[in-house]
Amino acid sequence: MRKKNYILILALAFMSFATVANAQTSGQCGDNLFWSFNSSTGALTFTGSGDMTNYTSFVSVPWRSFRNQITSVSLPNGMTSISNYAFQDYINLTGELTIPNSVTSIGNYAFSGCAGLTSVSIGNSVTMIGTSAFLNCSSLTSVIIPNSVTSIGNSAFQNCSSLISVIIPNSITSIRDRTFLNCTSLTSVTIGNSVTTIENSAFDNCISLTSIIIPNSVTSIGSRAFQNCTGLTSVTIGNSVTSIGVSAFENCTGLTSITIPSSVIEIRASFEGCTGLTLVIVQSLVPPYLSSMSFSLEIYANATLYVPAESLALYQNSVDWRVFNNIQTFGSSDITAPKEDNAETQIVGYYTLSGQKLSQEPQSGIYIIRYDNGKTEKVIK
After folding, report:
1. Across the 381 residues of the chain, what is the mean pLDDT of every consecutive 10-residue run?
2. Of 9, 30, 282, 328, which sits with the fewest C-beta atoms within 10 Å of its C-beta?
3. Residues 145 and 172 placed together within one structural domain of the fold
4. Which domain holds residue 128?
5. pTM for this one?
6. Same domain, 27 and 87
7. For residue 11, is it within any domain?
């Protein structure tokens, strides 16, 4: 039996070798687009122009047989699309990759599993990055997303565990589900001011992320959006956010304070597990809906809740908010209807981190500036 198994293994190995050896090393992959593979150098080279054939699965990609031999890919200026699955799981494709300016779309799973890629430069005509396009690119440290991009698919950069920083351009309106899930080295994120939604698990388990500024354009933060971001110490929530989803900041154990703007009308178990919270500031004159266990029990017991002075009784009598043992007030002359972003704003007060109004701007230390459009700014000097 062992001898038969051994013969079978040899036969399968020979068939695999024969398949690669006899595989076509060049061909057509679009109306005017061609590919060729050089086995001596490991280079996959494309020539011509136009769209790449839209392959429906990875097995239909004609150069797939060489995926373990391909070490570099050259894309021509003139190519206009990169197909779904085009380079999925090309584990020996290493170093930098340049996507030319002529390309307008990057398909689903196009570079998924290219664990050796370290840097990707995306051309300034790309409008769409597909679902899981760079999923599991675990060596990717740098990616530049141009302003031309209007859509980034779910899980596009999920598990890119070496990615350090990312700038989301103003052309993007939504950060989709799991876009940066498990990007454990991510320390810096800049969110463009056209983003309106941060969807479920968008930055889940980004444990190296220390601060995040959510711009005024954002109206909703999805469930688990920043869950398990244990290094997160500072969060600025824009004054257009109306909904914060379940477990949005669950287990952000480094978070010590949070300011919830007056635009928020519901909070759904959003801060459970944030055991380091000592200060919660709610700017709304009307207590927003707060679901059960939105905060951990020790937060209700130990943290200080600051609310507008004229709304103290409302919070003290609210079934949702009265569970806080210590409710204090701050001056709320700045809690007014938000102005348009392009309207002139004025400073209405300076506050300590605990919400106490100061008589003048401090010369040094850490304090909060509040503006008449509801915006707050943390200052360290």
Report:
1. 51 45 85 97 98 96 96 97 98 95 98 96 96 98 93 98 94 98 95 96 97 93 97 90 93 91 90 91 90 88 91 92 92 44 69 71 76 66 59
2. 9
3. no
4. 18-156
5. 0.80
6. yes
7. no
